[in-house]
Write a sequence for this structure.
């Protein structure tokens, strides 16, 4: 099958690699413009663009696909992308974490020029967690199960009919990083199966999303990073794991801001009735026990300013010898 692929991050690149390995011909890649990142703030290509370049696949990087955009340069780039897309022969369009909204004229073009229209890989069991951050919000909210939905796209925000769904259990120690990798593999597998079925003439069963159970996964913002120790231990634990790897949870101790990367709820720990939320009340072999508004959390992995990720026990070693009471606080 000839595929137009639109995506940007590693989650999308994994699906792109799987489609390529399955023998599908990717005739065009749409991905977001190169962004500055890293300590040197150098321009970096997206994982999708890097794979496309390695395999001599044409790449377009418009900042928008809206041909009516007010900015002349952006509007011209969007019009050029549309014209190029209209000029090529393809069977289906696959969209995975692209980061740009596909306007109706692009969806219409995909349906008109492609035999099978436009499909999306979404990392949730729709209609739960439509939107930008389904993986993070599922962990943060304590969902027991999540999954991947292959959706026939329409103009709404993740509102199209589903054609294939697969689920995964969320483990008690899951981080966004670990769940991302498992969902990316599942999404790639389901997308390959979807296109394989279409290639063999299978008529896909389209299931409209129910009107109940709709939730929205708002984009993760950096101001969500700071830990509120007044929350319950369960809430703090879920938040820490949900914000790994981005942006990481933070809290201050003795004027230094630390990052928190992993945690758990200890099965047994001696409680301190007089402890304040945010106070370190003890240590395990590698972790640190911290009092929350309700219950105690075990911090497993931390990072000092300018330092490397390490066990919480090792990270706090200096403070253990210098301070009688250690208490993390919000800035």
């Amino acid at each position: 099958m000839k595929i137009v692929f639109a995506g940007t991050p590693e989650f999308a690149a994994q699906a792109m690699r799987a489609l390529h390995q399955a023998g599908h011909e990717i005739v065009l890649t749409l991905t977001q413009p190169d962004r500055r990142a890293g300590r040197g703030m150098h321009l970096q290509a997206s994982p999708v663009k890097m794979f496309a370049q390695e395999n001599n696949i044409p790449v377009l990087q418009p900042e928008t696909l809206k041909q009516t955009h007010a900015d002349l340069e952006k509007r011209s780039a969007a019009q050029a992308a549309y014209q190029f897309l209209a000029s090529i022969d393809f069977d289906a369009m696959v969209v995975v974490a692209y980061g740009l909204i596909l306007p109706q004229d692009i969806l219409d073009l995909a349906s008109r020029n492609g035999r099978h229209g436009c499909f999306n890989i979404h990392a949730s069991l729709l209609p739960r967690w439509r939107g930008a951050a389904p993986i993070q919000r599922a962990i943060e909210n304590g969902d027991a199960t999540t999954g991947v939905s292959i959706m026939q796209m329409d103009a709404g925000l993740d509102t199209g009919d589903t054609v294939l769904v697969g689920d995964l259990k969320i483990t008690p120690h899951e981080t966004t990083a670990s769940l991302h990798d498992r969902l990316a593999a599942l999404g790639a597998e389901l997308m390959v199966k979807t296109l394989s079925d279409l290639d063999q003439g299978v008529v896909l069963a389209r299931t409209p999303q129910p009107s109940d159970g709709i939730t929205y996964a708002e984009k993760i913002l950096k101001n969500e990073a700071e830990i509120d120790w007044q929350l319950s231990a369960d809430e703090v634990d879920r938040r820490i794991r949900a914000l790994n790897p981005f942006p990481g949870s933070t809290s201050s101790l003795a004027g230094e801001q630390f990052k928190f990367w992993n945690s758990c709820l200890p099965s047994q720990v001696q409680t301190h009735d007089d402890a304040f939320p945010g106070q370190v009340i003890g240590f395990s072999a590698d972790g640190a026990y911290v009092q929350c508004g309700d219950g105690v959390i075990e911090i497993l992995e931390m990072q000092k300013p300018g330092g490397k990720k390490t066990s919480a026990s090792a990270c706090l070693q200096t403070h253990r010898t210098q301070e009688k009471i250690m208490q993390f606080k919000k800035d």
Notes: The longest strand covers residues 256-264. The chain has nine helices and 17 strands.
